[in-house]
Amino acid sequence: MKLWSLIGNSQRLDGGAxxxxxxxxxxSRWIEPDEHNRIPLACRCLLVTDLDGRKxxxxxxxxxxxxxxxxxxxxxxxxRHVLLDSLAEAGLRHEDIDAVVLSHLHFDHAGGLLAPxxxxxxxxxxxxxxxxxxxxxxxxxxxxPHPRDRASFIPEIVQLLEHSGRLELVREGASSSLGKxxxxxxxxxHTPGLMLxxxxxxxxxxxxxxxxxxxxxxxxxxxxxxPEKLIDEKKAFLDDKIARDVRLFFxxxxxxxxxSVKKDDKGRYFAADMLERLAGTEGWATA
Length: 287
Hints:
The longest helix has 18 residues, at 227-244. The protein contains 8 helices and 15 strands. The protein has helices spanning 15-19, 24-30, 68-73, 82-89, 107-110, 136-143, 155-162, 227-244, and strands spanning 2-7, 11-14, 38-41, 44-51, 54-58, 99-102, 131-135, 167-170, 182-187, 194-199, 202-204, 247-249, 258-263, 269-275, 279-282.
């Protein structure tokens, strides 16, 4: 297997919302805000080739589905669908992808499933030859969102996936069409049924740990539905990854794609051995 970190459309979001309980004096040292208090965020995807003969994409980023007004509201930087360019740099088209694994269906993780916005045109799915893997519990949330996170979902995506004939709901403890090469675990703190996929010694952390600053246990996002639960999940998650020497893949970190996790002499977790990108990198063996 070979691993690629693919950049999608980037965002600038309010730093206070992204760091929740951390004061600005602290988080502004981790990621510098602009004059509007916004911080830069990546929407990074993981591509795995030769996964039992398949090309598998883990997430699609925010994409370019927003109209200009909404793109401005949510701080999406580029007008074009950047992930399609990144796929091309890896020698692929979206038609070449065999499976798309979605940790959850919030628009900054699933919007890239859609073709770029065009005035007067309806929403349209890309990746015509791919199966779409979503956690079963999260699918129920996406179909009937809570008012707190209703705005994070794209109703058209739910409808298009449901009618695609290629939706696969992954259940905890059950095998998926990807077989034993991909291991799934689930989290509740950010959103119900957040699906965390591990492959070739790397785990896609999604919004459990969006980037390096959030490796520190107490740091959560204002977007998390259940911060205390998330912290407990994060501790168990990180202890397991240390024990098995599994690396973390960050979707939102603007400068780091992959890192290992370590603990200092006070028991605090931190990211180490950072890699800015993967480009046809061999996977890592795990314990």
